Amino acid sequence: MKDKNIIVLMGGPSAEAEVSRRTGTAICEALISMGYKAETLELNGETLIQDLRERNCDVVFNAIHGRFGEDGALQGLLEMAKIPYTGSGIMAHAVGMNKKVSKDVFKGAGIPTAISKSYDVSIQTVEDIATDIKTSFSFPVVVKAATQGSSLGVIIVKSENELSAAISDVTKYGNVMIAETYLDGHEFTVSVLNGKALPVIEIRPHSGEYDYKTKYTAGASDYLVPAPISDTLTSNMQRIGETVYNELQCSGTIRVDIMTDSKDNVYVLEVNTIPGMTATSLVPKAANAIGISFPELCENILLSAGLNKF
């Protein structure tokens, strides 16, 4: 790989573009420190293949969060152009990015996930959705956009009076939304690298809510790795993380976000097929806990490029 031209693709049109740029810059610097020929490239969908050809790209390191990079679109384009890329293939991204579809997969595979219902504002009014949520769930209830990451479009609704406004807010990100039972336990994440779960991390946000601002503000949360939980609970979470990886037919690295309830029952919230790789990101923290440095982690992901693709 060290004689290959590696393009770290970042940015793009999604609401997570700035986080993607941070991820891409960090990855590029790490690869260069390991002796690889790497450079970053801002995603322009209309000219992407031309841009890659002009740079004599041999491998794409995908650092795009959200739309195009994390929904299968980029993977399909690169496969048609026969350009190897890091991470999972089309199906894993398409399923992982859509919370409605991924929840259906979790349920079908016996992976525990919180009780939820999906709604579509293109065929239902906000008032009708609100009425059904009030009937189907108790408060607080979580409402979230179906196709966003980084906790964008996620609102914990504490009372009926807040519900209609919350529905309107989350559906600004897309027509489909999810309502989900609020879990009153603790928040964890399991990173999976090449099919093997890394140490479990417990997330303790100082604000009490792990939202977009908290995720990307240094010092806003405590990350306990390995999580101070029993060996049984740790093994259960790691097994679930690996099951998600296998069921979605993933490659490279993913991150599975998990919540417990007050009785320590475990529920998968979602899967992130392009996890963040910034200074505050969780996959690097988990890898570091078992002696894998950030540059080594990036190299490990790079070396999986092209596997299980075309």
Structural overview:
The chain has helices at 17-33, 48-54, 73-80, 90-97, 99-108, 126-136, 163-170, 212-215, 231-247, 282-289, 294-302; strands at residues 5-10, 37-42, 59-62, 116-120, 141-145, 154-157, 176-181, 187-193, 196-197, 201-205, 221-224, 253-260, 266-272. By secondary structure, it is an alpha+beta fold. It has 3 domains: 5-87, Rossmann fold; 95-104 and 184-302, D-amino Acid Aminotransferase, Chain A, domain 1 (2-Layer Sandwich); 116-181, 2-Layer Sandwich (Dna Ligase, domain 1), CATH 3.30.1490. Strand 8 and strand 9 form a beta hairpin. Helix 1 (17-33) crosses helix 11. The protein is globular and about 60 Å long. The two termini are 18 Å apart.
